[in-house]
């Protein structure tokens, strides 16, 4: 008889996610992905000034603020036919790209690595052996030292002895499938702590260009970032020097620490190249942030599009084939259970589930607050892995040069990228390539300033009198978790419809058209040794880097008013 196993909440993610699975023996045989909050930003957008949309859209999530703001301003600019200055475009690239690299590093070390790294094993490490292994693996990283590793080992030992595990609370530290030697556990935990300081430093790029972080400032028609080398309050030489220093530290960390750590850890878990396989359909509009300049302008040699039905060949994207279903979601569509194109999307919540607290949701056809996006009727994976795989399939020289040696070392073929380990690897490779691209964008930005190109705002279409009576637009961005798109209709100067189709909706959706969503598919079948310690399915779900806050917002199901605010 199948055993019902509930993982709620799935921790070390952004937002609320619940997974329900059926297990027979030590194997999962069925799975349901359940987003247990409600997303209502589309309703908030109705009848607002489209120039203000980005400020509301970036509040979809407290982590992914930059990406939603940029997708939103692009959607409005697309609807209004509103070109922006080159300098503003490059600033957006630098902000979005630096946030992507920061996100990838945070995800690996602080949200995912502890599924493979046993913190409780750190006191057992031989520090000298750990230093020797780290120096061989990462010879250019100066913190791989006896003093550093000794300090980290002592700190972790004190935490474990105290019983107050702090940031390491709720780990399954006695799970039998932790495989790394204690020395590698020590290296990884040390780099976990290093990454906390590193990410705090480099994200100040967002503050320099956006005024603050989180929730930097953006602007339809450009960026609110004045450039004046003679003014201390604007982007000037001092701030350019600061940004260059941050980019140098970004490249150094991801090339010399992050990617080598990923390869070393995956080497102990080679079976995860065969675990976590999901729907063999992929969408990628640009090579890891390269399409920051805006779809449909791809980088040289990259064809934006989809790969379907397991065929590693890219076909052109057709926007008309993107639809969202409410089959498994707590929503009501006026036309019934049909797929709606986002420009005509509806967000009408209709909760039909049990009164919380509940034991099991999967007995119901509707079991999640996530809509179910489909491309030509298919469930599709988005994210770093599909982007890297798409670039690889298209023969991108940089990607081939980065990926081929790793695949050879792991004894894998490109098809194995559709796996738990493949998604981890794709994210690390993309972080390295994006770090290099940040330097190229910054060089182009500085060269433009030296040539006198300092304009960051185009006022030509700011006034409503210049807008068409009715228009529609879509703003795309390839962001840390995958393909993000915001869709807007503008009528008589106001938003008449707004929909956001986010990466974690693509990956974390429920069933539609008879197909599981990607999270669900990745767990069927899947190992599960101990239902009380569901470490193995967490490894796979975390490999997608879930951000359910991007797909939801809080709803009090009792109907009680939580807060009231008047917005001018």
Q: What does the secondary structure layout of this molecule look like, with pairings?
A:
Layout: E1 3-7, E2 17-24, E3 27-35, H1 41-45, H2 53-57, H3 65-80, H4 86-112, H5 127-137, H6 146-162, H7 182-202, H8 204-210, H9 237-267, E4 282-284, E5 305-307, E6 315-316, E7 322-325, E8 372-375, H10 384-393, H11 397-410, H12 420-450, E9 470-479, E10 482-491, E11 494-501, H13 503-508, H14 518-522, E12 526-527, H15 535-542
Antiparallel strand pairs: 1-2, 2-3, 3-12, 4-5, 5-6, 7-8, 9-10, 10-11
Helix pairs in contact: 4-7, 4-8, 4-9, 4-12, 5-6, 5-7, 6-7, 7-9, 9-12, 10-12
Verbal overview:
By secondary structure, this protein is of the alpha+beta class. The C terminus is likely disordered. The protein has 15 helices and 12 strands. β2 and β3 form a beta hairpin. The protein has a 4-stranded antiparallel sheet with strand order 1-2-3-12. α4 packs antiparallel against α7, α4 packs antiparallel against α8 and α10 crosses α12. Helix content is 38%, strand content 12%.
TL;DR of this structure?
The chain is of the alpha+beta class and 568 residues long. Helices cover 38% and strands 12% of the residues.
List keywords for this structure.
568 residues, alpha+beta, 3-stranded antiparallel sheet, 15 helices, disordered C terminus
Low-confidence stretches at least 5 residues in length (pLDDT < 50)? 290-296, 552-568
Radius of gyration: 23 Å
Number of helices: 15
Q: Measure the end-to-end span.
A: 58 Å
Largest sheet: 4 strands, antiparallel
Structural class: alpha+beta
- As laid out across the biggest beta sheet, the strand order is 1-2-3-12
H/E series: EEEHHHHHHHHHEEEEEHHHEEEHHEH
Strand content: 5-15%
Please tally the β strands and state the result: 12
Overall pLDDT score: 93
Global outline = globular
Give helix % range. 25-40%
């Amino acid at each position: 008889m199948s055993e019902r196993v509930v993982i709620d909440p799935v921790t070390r993610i952004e937002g609320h996610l619940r997974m329900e699975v059926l297990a027979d023996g030590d194997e999962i045989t069925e799975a349901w992905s359940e987003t247990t909050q409600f997303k209502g930003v589309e309703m908030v957008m109705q009848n607002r000034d489209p120039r203000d949309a980005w400020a509301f859209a970036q509040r979809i999530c407290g982590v992914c603020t930059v990406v939603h703001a940029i997708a939103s301003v692009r959607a409005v600019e697309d609807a209004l036919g509103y070109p922006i200055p080159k300098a503003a475009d490059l600033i957006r690239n630098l902000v979005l790209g630096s946030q992507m690299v920061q996100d990838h590093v945070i995800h690996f070390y602080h949200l995912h690595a502890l599924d493979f790294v046993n913190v409780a094993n750190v006191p057992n490490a031989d520090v000298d052996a750990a230093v020797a292994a780290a120096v061989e693996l990462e010879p250019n990283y100066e913190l791989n030292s006896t003093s550093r590793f000794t300090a980290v080992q002592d700190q972790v030992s004190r935490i474990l002895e105290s019983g107050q595990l702090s940031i390491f609370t709720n780990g399954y530290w006695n799970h039998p499938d932790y495989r790394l030697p204690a020395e590698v556990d020590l290296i990884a935990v040390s780099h976990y702590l290093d990454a906390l300081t590193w990410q705090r430093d480099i994200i100040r790029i967002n503050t320099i260009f956006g005024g603050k972080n989180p929730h930097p400032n953006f602007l339809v028609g450009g960026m609110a970032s004045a450039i004046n080398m003679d003014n201390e309050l604007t982007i000037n030489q001092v701030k350019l020097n600061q940004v260059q220093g941050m980019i140098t530290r970004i490249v150094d960390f991801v090339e010399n620490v992050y990617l080598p750590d990923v390869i070393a850890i995956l080497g102990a878990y080679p079976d995860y190249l065969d675990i976590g396989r999901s729907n063999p359909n992929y969408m990628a509009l640009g090579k890891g942030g390269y399409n920051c300049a805006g779809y449909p302008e791809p980088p040289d040699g990259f064809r934006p599009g989809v790969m379907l039905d397991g065929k590693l060949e890219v076909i052109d994207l057709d926007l008309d084939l993107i639809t969202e279903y409410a089959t498994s979601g707590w929503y009501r569509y006026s036309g019934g259970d049909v797929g709606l194109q986002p420009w005509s999307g509806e967000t009408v919540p209709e909760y039909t589930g049990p009164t919380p607290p509940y034991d099991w949701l999967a007995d119901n056809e509707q079991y999640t607050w996530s809509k179910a996006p489909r491309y030509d009727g298919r469930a599709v994976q988005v994210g770093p892995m599909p982007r890297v795989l798409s670039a690889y399939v298209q023969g991108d020289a940089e990607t081939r040069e980065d990926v081929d040696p790793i695949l050879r070392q792991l004894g894998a073929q490109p098809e194995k990228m559709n796996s738990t380990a493949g998604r981890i690897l794709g994210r690390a490779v993309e972080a390295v390539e994006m770090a290099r691209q940040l330097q190229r964008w910054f060089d182009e930005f500085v060269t433009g300033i030296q040539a006198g190109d300092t304009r960051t705002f185009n006022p030509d279409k700011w006034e409503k009198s210049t807008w068409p009576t009715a228009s529609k637009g879509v703003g795309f961005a390839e962001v840390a978790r995958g393909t993000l798109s915001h869709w807007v209709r503008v009528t008589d100067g106001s938003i008449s419809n707004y929909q956001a189709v986010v990466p974690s909706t693509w990956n974390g959706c429920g069933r539609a058209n008879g197909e599981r969503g990607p999270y669900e598919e990745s767990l069927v079948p899947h190992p599960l040794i101990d239902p009380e310690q569901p470490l193995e399915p967490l490894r796979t779900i975390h490999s997608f880097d879930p951000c359910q806050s991007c797909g939801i917002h809080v709803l009090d199901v009792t109907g009680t008013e939580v807060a009231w605010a008047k917005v001018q």
